[in-house]
Amino acid sequence: MGRNGRSATVERIAPKTVGADLLDGVPRQRSVLPAPPPARPLAVPRVRPWLLLPTPARTPFTLGYAALLAATSVLAALAPPSLVYALYQGSSTDVTHLVRSPAVVLLTSALWIAGGLVSPYAVAFVLVLTALERRIGGARAACVFLAGHVLATLATEVPVGLAVLAGHLPGTSLHRLDYGISFGVAASTGALAGLLRPWLRWPLLAGTAALLLNDLLAYTDPMTNWGHLIALAIGVSAWPVIRRWAAAETPSHLHQRGDR
């Protein structure tokens, strides 16, 4: 009761929280951002030198043929010279043998490497045929090799026979010793170039052609040297067919086959 008899209403005011006015001055907490993902390392292409060599799964033709050539090269190195010469002569694709038994000598002449395993054509055979077979398959790679071997042989030996008939060459030219895998390797090199990227294709073709032209200019064996250039041209002329074969073979290479 108040002094005048009136009731007095006492307004109670809740005490102000100490420090509440200071909270507005506290800076807002920054939201925590997720850590950025670690930078991916630059993709470095893996170097797989074993892909340059034939394998049973991917390149059976090249592997089997290389083993056969290795065996005949060892035989040529160890057998008596008279026997080796007789084998070479019996396998020679000279005009006389081509007239008598063309199929036999065209096949048997491709069983030898002129110069043996140390010949540059032995190394080229393994590298080129492996790469070609990986891209178009074994049967097709064999067709390319055989086409170069047979067609270049006929392109060089038939003119010799005609020149002998016309009297421009002596009769001894009909028995000229001719054997080896070089025509097939040259044709396979020309065919493989058509499947490579331009920065590999043109240096490979230019380098191969330069080596073959240098041999031709040396004039030590012009018929064989012309055959090498003809075989290279045969491989280049097959690019449209080779590229269709490679396009048909690519899915099986990617999804069905594997290296062993």
From TrEMBL:
InterPro entries, per the entry: Rhomboid_2
Transmembrane segments annotated in the record for this chain: 63-88, 103-132, 144-167, 179-196
A Pfam family recorded for this sequence: Rhomboid_2
Keyword Transmembrane helix: yes
Protein's UniProt keywords contain Transmembrane helix: yes
Keywords: Membrane, Transmembrane, Transmembrane helix
Name of this protein: Uncharacterized protein
Originating organism: Streptomyces griseofuscus
